[in-house]
Amino acid sequence: LEWKNSEKSGDVTDTIDKTIGKKVLQLVGPSNTSTFIQLPKSKSPLKSLGLIGHYIYIEAFAKSNRPFSLHFDYIIDDKQFTRISLSNIFKAAKVLRNSP
Predict the structure, then answer these.
(1) Phi and psi angles of residue 37, each rounded to the nearest 5 degrees, phi first
(2) Deepest of 27, 30, 78, 95, by most Cβ within 10 A of its Cβ?
(3) SS3 of 4, please?
(4) Residue 61: per-residue pLDDT
């Protein structure tokens, strides 16, 4: 996966994290609708990330008491759309299912 195939919107910067010494993408903004990263970008001819494993590892750090949310949208076989949302604004876990 190359970052040139990503779409960045809002206050997204590449930086080196001082704690882990690795390149990270830092997202800072008033709203998750205006500050985001989309992989692959919407106008890219690439329609898949080419993931073949069973797991994906995402590490996120939210600054103290600031709301955050992560949304993972994926489509399987052009039929089944699934969204997984992780956030500190939800009070309880919930599973929603939409039938096609």
Answers:
(1) -125, 130
(2) 27
(3) helix
(4) 79
Alpha carbon distance 39, 7 (integer Å): 7
Structure tokens at 97: 């299912």
**Residue 23 β-bridge partners:** 16
Give SS3 for 66: coil
Q: Which residue, 72, 95, 94, is CA-closest to 83?
A: 72
Sign of the four-CA dihedral 36, 37, 38, 41: positive
pLDDT tens track for 40-68: 887 777 777 777 888 877 887 777 777 78
- Res 35 pLDDT > 80: yes
The counts of H helices and E strands in the chain are 0, 6
Write down how long the chain is: 100
pLDDT of residue 53: 81
